[in-house]
Amino acid sequence: MTDFRTDATETRIQELEQRVETLTDALRTVLDGLADDPPRDVRDSPAARGARLAREVLLAGGS
Q1: Model confidence at 13, in pLDDT bands (50, 70, 90)?
Q2: pLDDT tens for residues 17-63?
Q3: Contacts of 18 (CB under 8 A, 6+ apart)
């Protein structure tokens, strides 16, 4: 079977693989940060509310 990939195609594939790896690492870092239950006693903190909501959405999507 003949391989029709050019050097440009191989380079593009390698670039895309590197991007996927970078995005995977970034997502893993975000998920690690959401692993702990964000505090509920900070009513006026939009960041805490957003973290709780993001965690709930991620947990609901994983089941």
Answers
A1: very high
A2: 988 888 887 777 777 776 666 566 656 677 777 777 777 777 777 54
A3: none
Query: In Å, what is the CA distance from 47 to each residue of 22, 27, 33, 44, 57?
Result: 25, 18, 13, 9, 15
At CB < 8 A and 24+ separation, what contacts does 36-42 make?
none
Q: Is 32 helix (H, G, I), strand (E, B) or coil?
A: helix
- What's the confidence (pLDDT) of residue 63? 46
Amino acid of residue 40: R
Contact call for residues 38 and 46 (beta carbons, < 8 A): no
| Residue owning tokens 């995005």 | 23
Residues 9, 26: contact at Cβ < 8 Å?
A: no
